[in-house]
What does this fold into?
Amino acid sequence: MIAMNDFKAEPSELAHAEKEAIERVLHSGSFILGQEVREFEEAWADFCGAQYCVGVANGTDAIEIALRALNIGTGDEVITTPMTAMATVMAILRTGATPVLADIDPETALMDLQAAQCKLSPRTKAVVLVHLYGQARYLDRWKAFCEQHQLALVEDCAQSHGARWGGRPAGTFGTFGAFSFYPTKNLGAKGDAGALITDSAEMAERARAIRNYGSLRRNEHREFGVNSRLDEMQAAILSVRLQWLSRFNARRAEIAARYFKEVRNPHIQLLSPPSPNSHAYHLFVVRCEERRRLAEFLKSREIESLIHYPIPAHQQPFWKEVDEAAPALPNAERHARECLSIPCHPQLTETAVSAVIQALNVYR
Ligand SMILES: *Cc1c(COP(=O)(O)O)cnc(C)c1O
It folds into this structure.
């Protein structure tokens, strides 16, 4: 089976370093907010070209904590995309704010700037911009848009570790970049983990307090907070895996380049090719009108595929609790019907990539 992810095929050198890191933590006697977390936070801020990094428990919390640090909550509206992991929308709801969904650009599946503009209201306070599949696009325009309308910009970078726009890392355009280190992300832990990056000392401090019961000093709770800490074990593993991220991302880009060059089939559409380095290729997504048939055909050839995402946020059953009326978002609805993610992980061999291309090209 050519799988969507294959951790067992990772270099033994990496596996060995992970084991060492785990043992180091086991023997340190320190498990929460210690040296490992501080070191990873510093390394991740460096990698992203940001001033500060605050480790948190997962990517959903990262978005929620960013919005809370920005004082966004009940009565506020936050514009985001319907084509994302539900976590994005849930994080907005957790703050008490109302998610307002803007339709996507069909060529990229990313939220469309004009569509977002149409959703502005006097209550709009922020945009959560999702770099879906790993694509960092037009981040300068989004930053200018948010500045023009005095909105906070939070980047959902859960799929875009290492992506750049105009040479500048994703996550540094907004006040916060929110990352997930869920195991299958480009930088993944061995459990749940997440982080925020920011250039604002004040925002970093607030996020640090909120992740730890609103406390920066023992027994002093200066504001509302949650328990959303990154633990030492995950931080130690992330520090090891960070050393491999650039190599792994480069391999993903190589695979994607072959797909763009070699997949030729009138029944299968690719998304718009990105500018160099602006895509982390967390996922490589194609579109096909008969998606189910294509997925079955791939499966018959031992090729796994997945759908990101089959149901847009406004068509999820829970949406009626947000709003009794679902907005019409035709581009997102169509994308949800047609999109299919094909294998694009760093451990894929050239032979496997060729097999995927061959299968896509003979599909009728
Ligand atoms: C994975 C993901 C999240 C949520 O991250 P968790 O660590 O699972 O909470 C949020 N947004 C996007 C776009 C994601 O892919």
User: Anything to note?
Assistant: The mean pLDDT is 98. Residues 58-60, 84-85, 87-88, 130, 156, 158-159, 180, 182, 192, 194 surround pyridoxal-5'-phosphate (CB under 6 Å). The chain has twelve helices and 14 strands. The longest strand covers residues 124-130.
